[in-house]
Amino acid sequence: MNLLSIIIFLLPPERLNLVHILAFMNTHNKNEGRRDFLKKSTALAALTIASPALVKAGENDERIAALFEKISLKLEINGVAHNLSVEPRVTLLDLLREQLQLTGTKKGCDHGQCGCCTVHVDGKRINSCLSLAVMNEGKKVTTIEGLANGDKLHPMQEAFIKHDGFQCGYCTPGQIMSAVACIKEGHADSAEQVREYMSGNICRCGAYPNIIDAIMEVKKGGQPL
Ligand code: FES
Ligand code: FES
Questions:
Q1: C-beta of 44 in contact with ligand 2 (< 6 A)
Q2: Is 223's pLDDT higher than 90?
Q3: How far apart are CA 53 and CA 122, in angstroms?
Q4: Containing H/E element for 60?
């Protein structure tokens, strides 16, 4: 077991951003000198092992950021090509919200547990809080802002409105992105199946019955999604 594996194994959940970084380093160090890579690994290991009581999270983040330079990144988002410069630690969710002001995609748990941040990458749904932006080089991202066709809402958006598939609306962008993917995946043959394949999207307002009704109506309508 190498040093990185041991660190990842020992890492508490609140240090998840470090897991992101280490995973990235593990897969993107092909063009980096061994000495440079080891230097960064050792520095990160020291930050990881240090007691939280001694190292404040904010200071930690700044020290980590100083170790890395920004990386160029090409992405197509909602049909628009973007040439970006991002820190390797930045998640796709934070890139969308903080750098591109696409705030329709919501941040709930930031730990892959609520589904608020669901977007499509190359047609597949993912939790954008669990994906480093740089891991999506050259891919096509669709967010809730890219679902409508101009002024015409997507059939799933129409159905959510018709069936009152929301109350506060915070989970709704993620629910809609997931719902579209659920049908495209072929996982909407029954209300029971929809419940199972939408189980990664949490609604604190409990709008589940209406959400299921909306999805089933779109599925029955058979419109191209
Ligand atoms: Fe991504 Fe909760 S914010 S799953
Ligand atoms: Fe409020 Fe789902 S509508 S959390």
A1: no
A2: no
A3: 42
A4: helix 57-66
Please report the atom of ligand 1 found closest to the CA of residue 107. Answer: 3
> Which CATH number is correct for 71-146, 3.40.50.970, 3.30.70.141, 3.10.20.30, 3.40.50.2000?
3.10.20.30
Question: pTM of the full predicted structure?
Answer: 0.75
**147-163 tens-digit pLDDT:** 999 999 999 999 999 99
Q: Which protein residue has the closest C-alpha to ligand 1 atom 4?
A: 112
Candidates 3.30.450.20, 1.10.150.120, 3.20.20.70, 1.20.1250.20; correct CATH number of 155-221? 1.10.150.120
State whether the beta carbon of 207 lies less than 6 angstroms from ligand 2. Answer: yes
Q: Assess contact for 114 and 108: CB atoms under 8 A.
A: yes
The label of the residue with tokens 């993107």 reads 28
